[in-house]
Amino acid sequence: MKRTLISLTVFAAVALTITGRVTATSGSAALRPEVLRRVYFSAVDAKGAPVTDLTAAELTVKEGGKERAIAELKPAMAPMHVSLFVDDQGSGAFQVAVAKFFETLLRQAKFAVSVMNPQPIKVADYTADPAELRAALGRMGQRGKVDVDGEQIVDAVAGAAKELQQLKAGRPVIVVLTASDEAAVSNQSDNALNSLRASGASLHVLYVINIELGKVLVEGPKQSGGMTQQVARGVPVAPVLAKIADNLMNQYALTYTIPDGVKLSDRLSLTTSRKDVKLIAPSRLPDK
After folding, report:
1. Please, which contacts does 29-32 make with residues 24 or more away whose CB atoms are closer than 8 Å?
2. 22-76+252-280, what's its fold?
3. Where in the chain does DSSP place strands (E)?
4. What pLDDT shows up at residue 28?
5. CA-CA distance, 280 to 283, in Å (whole number)?
C-alpha cells in the first residue's frame, strides 16, 4: 500500500506557522587489511540548489592528510534514522514545517521525535507510520510558555547520538529545531561532540535569529557534515526546513579505500574541482 502523509499537512495547517555517516565495510581493528569507508555528503551550487551530477573524477578525498582512492560514488539510497528535536518554547511554530519534513522524507526515513518541554519528551520512536507521526505532530501544538535550559539541548544531542550508535543505524541523522539559547559554555559540549563523531550521525540545525548558539550547535554541523539554517521570528519555517530535507534527499554515498595496514584517522577532507560548488561533508569521522 502506498504510504502518504497528505493528511499531516492538513492537520498541521490549522496550527501556528538540516552526513556524515562513515562506515568501515570490513574489519574493526585500528590496523587491518584494506578497508572501504563510506561517507555521505551533499553538494550545492552558488544559489544553494542541490548539485546531483558530480563525478568521482571531480572529487579529492584525504583522510588524515593522505589522499585516498575513490572506489565508488553514487546517489545515497540507504534508509535514514532521523532523530528530530523540537524546541519551539511551547509556541507550536514548527508544527507545519515538521509535517512537510515528514512528507518529504517518509519513503527514505524512520523518525524519532522529541519535544523539549523543557526536557526532551519522546513522542515518537523511529517510525514511518503516518498515524504515529500524526500523533507526534499533535504534541507540537501551542503548549504555553516553555523555558528550555541551554544545557538540555547539549544533552539531547549527546543522547540521540548514543542511541543511534547503539542502534547501529546505517545512515543516522539528528535535526534540531530551536528557538532557545544553547549554553555558551558547557562542560558537556566536548562529550556531546565526541558522541556525535562516534555515532557517525550528521547534525542539522535550524535556529531562530538572535538566539545564542554554543559549541555543539555551531561545531556539530561543521564536523558531521550537516546544515545550519536560520529563520526570523514570525517567518514561515517550512521553506527553511525544506532546505535540510532537500539536502538529505540529494546526498551522495562515497566509498573510498584505506590501504593495507594503515591506521584509520578521524580527520577527513573532501574537495571538488568543480567551480562554484560547495560540498557539505563531514570533517571528523569515527576512528574505528
Report:
1. 29/288, 30/263, 30/264, 30/287, 30/288, 31/261, 31/262, 31/263, 32/261
2. Immunoglobulin-like (2.60.40)
3. 22-24, 35-44, 59-63, 66-68, 70-75, 80-87, 109-116, 120-127, 172-178, 202-208, 228-231, 252-258, 268-272, 278-280
4. 44
5. 10
Q: What is the pLDDT of residue 270?
A: 98
Among 57-66, 89-98, 127-136, where is mean pLDDT lowest? Answer: 89-98
AA letter at 102:
F
pLDDT at site 182: 86
Q: How far apart are CA 253 and CA 244, in angstroms?
A: 17
Dist. CA 14–CA 95, nearest whole Å: 10
Q: What is the mean pLDDT of the chain?
A: 88
Give the separation between CA 154 and CA 220, rounded to whole angstroms: 10
Question: In terms of Cα–Cα distance, which of 287, 273, 285 is closest to 51?
Answer: 273
Q: How confident is the model at residue 2 (pLDDT cuts 50, 70, 90)?
A: very low
Confidence (pLDDT) at 33: 59
pLDDT given for residue 8 in this prediction: 47
Q: Which of 146 and 5 is assigned the larger pLDDT? A: 146
Q: What is the pLDDT of residues 169-178, one digit of tens each?
A: 999 999 999 9
Residue 78: strand, helix, or coil: coil
Backbone CA torsion sign across 239, 240, 243, 245: negative
CATH of span 6-18+78-249: 3.40.50.410
What stretch of H or E contains 226? none
User: How high is the pLDDT of residue 17?
Assistant: 31
Find, among 213, 86, 207, the residue nearest to 143 by Cα.
Answer: 86
Instruction: From 170, 189, 159, 37, select the one nearest 110 (Cα to Cα).
Output: 170
Residues of the chain with CATH 2.60.40: 22-76+252-280
Which bin fits 102, alpha (ψ -120 to 50), beta or left (φ > 0)?
A: alpha
